[in-house]
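JOB MANIFEST
job_type = single_chain_structure
chain_count = 1
residues = 343
[input]
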Amino acid sequence: MKLIVTGGAGFIGSAFVAQALERGDDVIVLDKFTYAGHRENLDWIKDKSRLKIIAGDICDGALVPRLLREQQSDAIVNFAAESHVDNSISSPGIFIKTNIEGTYNLLETGQKYWSGLPGEKKGRFRFVQISTDEVYGSLGSTGKFSEESPVRPNSPYSASKAAGDHLVRAWHETYGFPAIVTNCSNNYGPRQFPEKLIPKTILDAIAGKKIGIYGDGKNVRDWVHVADHCAGVHLAVTRGKPGQTYCFGGNAERSNIETANKICEILDEVRPRKAGSYKEQITFIKDRPGHDRRYAIDDAKAVRELGFKRKYNFEKGIRATVEWYLESRAWIDSVTHKEKVSA
């Protein structure tokens, strides 16, 4: 396939790009290269002969149509998003710009390109919007989110993603545009920017810093390995039905304190401190506003209709993730240095 992957230099997008290239797809990465998008996330890919990287904004109304025409694309896969909840609380405007206006621009330009395609190519084209379980709000102690769950976002981030998802649905219903939405639970794995819980816990631990955990630490997340999530997205692109939503989860619910403790236990084993456990660095900090209590995904529809399967359980995946960060000092130094310079 010929793919345009927006946000393809980010954590999840770059993992998807690597899988696409391994399958033999041609890929144009369109990335704005903000603090969380890095060429280093793509540098490790050995064969880049079918990869083209473009620095640009999904809000650019001239750039996206040109790339579609040049690539004669079979799909747009939209990973581009502002995604850190804390940042959305302090600076919501950029989330509105990227996650809503950017999605609108992709839909408008994509729909015009698609409408002019010949029959077979038109029938094959897909637009896949990558979203989050956070659009569904917060769960109680039981139950899971599914494609039928009501949308109840509780942060500027999740509200902006929900708005983008609604636009995608509207473009399918109004114009027949072959669009699909995927909602995933919390991703983890290599090359995740160190603002998120798992990489931040690893790096703060080995740096001897306090490991900050919001509130009482009992907020629950369902963790899916990034490689499994990206395999699911590929299934949505190739097997998904336009107008449908597909949820991808990890079947790995853990409270934040459980996750932090597990990371500390692995570090105690593979890189022990001179004395005591890394758990001694854990400290509880003031909870953030609108902090959802629990997420969990029921991905039975994706399993049934797309053939979605997970390769990673949490025990295997988190150990491999900890070891990757311990072995990837150059990547860490490079991306965190860029963040400091841009700030």
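[summary]
The longest strand covers residues 126-132.
DSSP finds 13 helices and twelve strands in the chain.
exit_status = 0
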